[in-house]
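Quick note —
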Amino acid sequence: MNALPDSIQVFERGWLSSNNVMLLGRDDTAIIDTGYMTHAPQTLELVRHALRGRHLDQIINTHLHSDHCGGNASLQAHFGSRTSIPVAEADKVRHWDVEALSFKATGQRCERFTFDATVSPGDVLKLADMEWQALGAPGHDPHSLIFYCAQERVLISADALWENGFGIIFPELDGQSGFAEERATLDLIEGLDVRLVIPGHGKPFNDVAGALARARSRVDYLEADPLRNAQNALKVLLKFLLLERQSIPLVEVPRLLLAMPVFAKANSNFLKQTPEEVATWAAGQLVRAGAARVEGEHLLNV
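Predicted structure written out below.
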């Protein structure tokens, strides 16, 4: 039931980098999502090993959060690969608009890359000798795409659906609608004949009904009190920084949060605390969850 065709390989990358999906056709090769910038050298080696001397023809991004496109520039430099991004992000990338792209807002990094084509919801892509339908999947990100192969009943779900949940509902932090869109995306997925989901993070899974039920329950939980979404976002963003840096002086945590526009908006809309208060709370939550520890004056990754 979990078996993938030989032409599909999944590199499960952990949490800082998204999963990478290699699609190896008779006459073409492609990768969907490229991980975080810090891991770009490792991504390049994984891709080269999988290609076994072949050329990487295409890079395709489900959405442009830094953990999904951070390897684009490295792969482009090495292979000269044709790159396709969601159509709604084209102008932002063309002009490298750091205010409109999410990297600065979340305190993350991404080396500048270019694109050759865009993908719109409803487009059909021929990858690895299979047809994949691009579907709009707003919620976590307004412009995110997911890819469905009816032939193999496989769904590449990005951060719209994980085995246990989904990605942060970012629009809600800015006072925009996101919960309703996430719920609609889950309904869309339920309407597909899916035997196997390849999520943006975590291992591929086939209990689609169970995952959808858990995701819907989480949407209900977050929507009942949007402060929960804001608090979860701050914990996740701090953990991301900690994963990248491994050690952060406690005194620096408020400054790092202040450097994130998404924090300012979430704090203004929901948290309504000083940066020092939020930093103390977020660090304490990570420590209680076993995701960090305090040693002297530093917050350390666990």
